[in-house]
From TrEMBL:
This is Uncharacterized protein. Keywords: Leucine-rich repeat, Repeat, Signal. It holds the Pfam family LRR_8. It comes from the Eukaryota.
């Protein structure tokens, strides 16, 4: 069957009609489409008067499989057919063909790829369908792709992902669904891809992360839920259990969202976390225990949050931390003495008046735009300081041993 130049008229009925199974579609046929479904006679089951096409569709569904075709005409008659012959069909408008949603992926322009075509477009265990106007993955479409390792669906027009979307991709390691318009994720959508290692979901329209969403992803090392280049972003709440099974997770990017609170449970289970970017959120509360739970952190960016509430010794215990970015956080006081491996420290644009820390390993220190008057620590000014990049512009320095030239 060649549907590719048909004008598809798709009604996703599970949204409209509660009782209807999710995999029903009605496709509008053009008068002269050559469909291979002609029968040797036309069987009209019922003519049902109604003003609404939706009622006509409901009627069809109520008749189970005996309804295969409907026409809905301007004079408000709904005709329900079991079979049609070519001579009856040809030239008629308003013909809708009932079909089960076949396991395919669909593009905006009406074309689609079937299960067998999908495995055929894989090259070296990769499938790249980015920037293609992809707008629907029907359940089990990738079923034959059990050898594929990498799937790139970035820059498309997916709005939802249902369970079994990636069914069969038992070897999949890298899944890139960034830059779509996804707002709905069924909570078991990643259930059948247990070996997933990298998941890119950034730049979508996600609002919340369901508690079981990542349940089986015990191999996941990197997850990207951030929004780049977009000003109004969406994730507000992360369920406490969302990350609980991600024992291997090393990188979480969740910047530019709307998260207002992280407590000691938020990234529970993510004990191997090395990189956390939670900058540009709305943080107003962070549990005191946060830093003791993530002792493997190497890179932490919390910039552009309001951390005025934070205790000065909050970062104690992060002994592996090398990069700490706290730009624009309303911080008044901070104690960094336990961060023995810290190399890059950005404290610019805060409210720090007095800064005296033993930062023996720091090489890059940015502390500009603070109301800083006293910067005296010997390790900043001494001969063998490791600081080689120091930015103290826009401060109010009156007392310092640093030779500012
Ligand atoms: C996929 O490739 C196989 C083997 O190369 C071929 O036999 C088959 O016809 C192809 N299927 C489609 C749908 O193109
Ligand atoms: C529709 O889009 C797909 C993916 O971009 C493309 O491969 C296909 O040729 C297009 N089909 C038509 C009929 O334009
Ligand atoms: C899609 O992802 C694959 C693998 O990560 C990559 O090789 C390819 O360049 C990506 N395509 C685009 C358009 O980004
Ligand atoms: C489809 O996706 C592309 C790439 O992400 C985007 O530029 C375009 O605006 C989207 N179209 C619609 C109708 O959302
Ligand atoms: C995902 O796709 C985006 C855009 O095409 C690309 O920049 C990024 O590198 C990809 N990520 C992976 C892991 O392939
Ligand atoms: C996790 O994956 C296993 C197979 O790897 C499967 O049997 C089990 O049902 C999955 N559990 C959930 C909650 O998805
Ligand atoms: C953000 O946008 C800039 C230019 O507008 C572009 O150069 C950059 O690649 C974008 N970043 C991402 C992660 O898409
Ligand atoms: C840290 O966060 C700030 C604020 O969102 C951002 O501008 C900066 O690029 C981030 N730096 C790194 C290294 O991620
Ligand atoms: C914080 O950690 C301490 C010591 O491990 C524990 O007693 C306390 O209950 C924790 N608080 C929270 C809110 O988890
Ligand atoms: C930061 O939060 C404090 C309370 O925690 C609040 O008083 C203050 O107005 C906030 N500042 C900004 C700039 O939002
Ligand atoms: C600063 O810290 C380093 C490493 O922790 C330590 O060796 C050194 O003695 C400290 N210096 C001062 C003056 O406390
Ligand atoms: C600046 O800090 C040094 C070292 O802590 C201290 O001895 C000195 O009194 C301070 N100066 C002022 C004016 O606060």
């Amino acid at each position: 069957m060649n549907y590719s130049n048909l004008k598809l008229f798709m009604l996703i009925l599970d949204i409209i009609l509660q009782r209807v199974a999710a995999n029903e579609w009605f496709t509008k046929k053009n008068p002269f489409d050559d469909i291979s479904l002609y029968h040797d006679k036309t069987i009209l089951i019922e003519t049902y008067p109604t003003q609404f096409r939706l009622k006509c569709i409901q009627k069809c569904l109520s008749l189970d499989t005996s309804c295969q075709f409907i026409t809905f005409t301007m004079n408000e008659l709904c005709n329900i057919f079991n079979a049609v012959e070519r001579s009856y069909y040809n030239g008629r408008n308003n013909f809708y063909f009932r079909e089960k949603r076949l396991p395919r992926i669909h593009f905006k322009n009406g074309s689609f790829l079937d299960q067998n075509q999908l495995i055929n477009i894989s090259i070296n265990f990769r499938i790249d369908i980015s920037r293609s106007g992809l707008n629907l993955i029907v359940q089990q479409a990738f079923k034959n792709c059990e050898t594929v390792l990498t799937l790139n669906l970035s820059f498309n027009n997916l709005t939802q992902l249902n369970s079994k979307s990636f069914y069969g991709m038992v070897k999949l390691k890298s899944l890139n669904i960034s830059y779509n318009q996804i707002s709905q994720l069924e909570s078991d959508v990643f259930k059948e891809v247990p070996l997933l290692y990298i998941l890119e979901l950034n730049n979508n329209f996600l609002k919340r992360l369901d508690e079981n969403l990542f349940y089986n992803l015990t191999e996941l090392e990197s997850i990207n839920l951030a929004l780049y280049n977009v000003s109004s972003n969406e994730i507000k709440t992360v369920h406490y259990d969302t990350f609980k099974s991600l024992k291997q997770i090393k990188r979480i990017h969740i910047f530019e969202n709307q998260i207002s609170e992280i407590n000691s449970e938020t990234f529970k289970g993510a004990h191997n976390l090395e990189i956390l970017s939670i900058n540009s959120n709305k943080l107003q509360r962070i549990d005191r225990n946060f830093s003791s739970n993530y002792r493997n952190l190497i890179d932490l960016n919390m910039s552009n949050n309001n951390l005025s509430f934070i205790e000065p010794d909050f970062f104690r215990g992060l002994v592996k931390l090398e990069n700490l970015r706290l730009y624009g956080c309303q911080i008044k006081q901070i104690d960094l003495s336990s961060l023995v491996n810290l190399k890059v420290l950005n404290l610019a644009k805060n409210k720090i008046e007095y800064f005296s820390q033993n930062l023996s390993s720091v090489t890059n220190l940015y502390i500009s735009s603070n109301p800083l008057v006293n910067l005296t620590y010997p390790l900043i000014s001494s001969e063998n300081t490791s600081v080689y990049h120091l930015d103290i512009s826009n401060c109010l320095l009156r007392y310092t041993h640093v030779n500012i030239s």
